[in-house]
Amino acid sequence: MFTPILLATVARTVEWSPTIGLIMILCNILAIAIGKSTIQNPHTGPAAPSSNMFGGLSLGAVVGTLCFGHILGAGTILGLSYIGAI
């Protein structure tokens, strides 16, 4: 009885393309910039393996900002695909 309703609410997803990859990279760079300026203690904890690449952020700060970047990227990609821009 609920099957048609559930099938109607499934979001349309797009296939991977270089445009999708570029959007995700840009969202992760934006998240790192936001994280560097807003994290109160960015150097607390173990250092990231290539900490110079991430501006000296600790491992926890890098993981947190990249998780936030992927959330931003997924939302951006889904939103742009919903309006038909990509």
Automatic annotation (TrEMBL):
GO cellular component: photosystem I; plasma membrane-derived thylakoid membrane
GO biological process terms on file: photosynthesis
Keyword match Thylakoid: yes
Membrane protein topology class: Multi-pass membrane protein
Assigned keywords, A-Z: Membrane, Photosynthesis, Photosystem I, Thylakoid, Transmembrane, Transmembrane helix
Family per similarity comment: Belongs to the PsaG/PsaK family.
Name the UniProt record assigns to this protein: Photosystem I reaction center subunit PsaK
